[in-house]
Design brief:
single chain, 343 residues, mainly alpha, 16 helices, globular, UPF0718_permease, transmembrane helix, membrane, transmembrane, DUF318
Length: 343
C-alpha cells in the first residue's frame, strides 16, 4: 500500500512538472537536438546570452518586489480609491502600474472596493493599468527592448487606465453600468486576501521577524518565477529568429501604417503571453521586421487579455462590464501603438 502511495505521489509530481515552463524548455531543446543538431548550440548560446544580459534586471526586480511585499506597501493602493471620482481615476491609473499584487490578490481587492461603493470608473482605471506594468515588468521590458520602449509602455499603461476610467464615467453619466457587480468574493484563490486600507507600510521591515521571512520567501518565489518564464521566453526567441522568415513577420506587422498595428493588437488579444515572456519575443519580432508601434499594441492587448485579469473581471462583474473591459483594452492598445509609432 505504501509503494502504491509513493508511486501515485511520484506520478502526480511528474505531471505537475510536465505542466511547467521547464518541461516546455526541455521539450523544445530536445526537438532541436533531434531535428536540427547543427543549430542546437547556436540556439542554446543565444538563449543563455540573452538571459545573462537580463540577469541584473531580474535581480533588481526581485529585490524590489520582495521589499514592497515585506513592507506592506500595497496597502497604499487602497487609499487611491478615496475622495472625488476624478481624483480617484487619476490615482487608480497610476497606482495600477505600481501595485505589486499577485494576479489572484486583485480579485478580493476589487470585489471589496465595488462592494463598498467605489465607483466603477476608478476601479476600471486600476483594472486596465494593473496588468500592463509593475516594477519587475518595467525592468524586464527595459532589458529586452530598451528604456524608451519600457517607459513608453509605462506611460501607455497609465494612459489606458485614464482612457478607460473616464470612458466608464461618461457612460455611467447616461445610466449605463448602474449595478455592475455580479457577486462578492471575500477570499482570493491563494488565500492571501486583499490589503487593508488602514494598514501602514513598515519601511524598515527587517525589524520584524515575520516581515524578514516574507522578504525571503517572496525573493525566492519571484526569482524562480521570473527565471523559468524568461528562460522559456529566450528559447522561444532563439527559435523564432532561427526558423521564422523575416519577410513573413514584416508582411504581417511591418510597415508604418495603422493596419499592422491593428492586426498586432487583434492577434495579441487571443495569443496572450505574460509580461515576462512578451518582451524577449517582441525583441525577436522587431529584428524580423515588426514595427515598434505594432509591438506596443501587441504587448498591451496581450496583457489586457491575460487569463488572471479576464478571470477577475468575469468573476466579479456583469457581462456588459466585461465586454467594456475588452473593448477599451483593444482600442486603447491600437491607439497606444499608433502614438508610439508616431513619437
Amino acid at each position: 500500500m505504501a509503494d502504491l502511495t509513493q508511486n501515485l505521489g511520484a506520478s502526480q509530481a511528474l505531471l505537475r512538472w510536465l505542466k511547467t515552463p521547464w518541461a516546455v524548455i526541455v521539450a523544445l531543446l530536445v526537438s532541436v537536438a533531434v531535428l536540427d543538431m547543427g543549430n542546437f548550440q547556436t540556439i542554446v548560446i543565444f538563449a543563455l546570452n540573452a538571459l545573462a544580459h537580463t540577469g541584473r534586471y531580474i535581480l533588481f526586480a526581485v529585490l524590489l518586489l520582495a521589499y514592497l511585499k515585506a513592507t506592506g506597501a500595497e496597502a497604499l493602493v487602497a487609499r487611491a480609491f478615496e475622495g472625488r471620482e476624478v481624483r480617484m481615476i487619476f490615482l487608480a491609473a497610476v497606482f495600477g502600474g505600481l501595485a505589486p499584487f499577485c494576479s489572484c490578490e486583485v480579485i478580493p481587492f476589487i470585489a471589496g472596493l465595488l462592494a463598498l461603493g467605489a465607483p466603477l470608473s476608478a476601479v476600471m482605471a486600476f483594472w486596465l493599468s494593473s496588468p500592463l506594468i509593475d516594477p519587475p515588468t518595467l525592468l524586464i521590458t527595459a532589458g529586452a527592448l530598451g528604456w524608451p520602449f519600457a517607459i513608453g509602455k509605462a506611460v501607455a499603461a497609465v494612459a489606458l487606465g485614464l482612457f478607460g476610467g473616464f470612458a466608464i464615467k461618461a457612460l455611467m453619466g447616461h445610466g449605463v453600468f448602474a449595478n455592475p457587480l455580479k457577486q462578492v468574493q471575500k477570499t482570493s484563490c491563494c488565500g492571501c486576501g486583499a490589503p487593508k486600507a488602514d494598514a501602514k507600510p513598515v519601511w524598515a521591515f527587517w525589524s520584524e521577524p515575520e516581515r524578514r521571512q516574507r522578504f525571503r520567501s517572496e525573493f525566492v518565489a519571484n526569482g524562480l518565477f521570473l527565471l523559468k518564464w524568461l528562460a522559456l521566453a529566450y528559447v522561444l526567441e532563439a527559435l523564432l529568429v532561427s526558423y521564422v522568415p523575416a519577410d513573413v513577420i514584416a508582411g504581417l506587422v511591418g510597415g508604418e501604417g495603422v493596419v499592422p498595428i491593428a492586426v498586432a493588437a487583434l492577434v495579441g488579444m487571443p495569443a496572450y503571453l505574460n509580461s515576462y515572456v512578451a518582451p524577449p519575443l517582441l525583441a525577436g519580432l522587431i529584428e524580423q521586421g515588426m514595427s515598434v508601434g505594432a509591438a506596443m499594441a501587441f504587448m498591451i492587448a496581450g496583457a489586457v487579455s491575460s487569463i488572471p485579469a479576464m478571470a477577475a473581471v468575469w468573476s466579479l462583474v456583469k457581462p456588459q462590464v466585461f465586454a467594456a473591459y475588452l473593448g477599451l483594452g483593444v482600442s486603447g492598445a491600437i491607439l497606444s501603438g499608433i502614438l508610439f509609432q508616431m513619437l
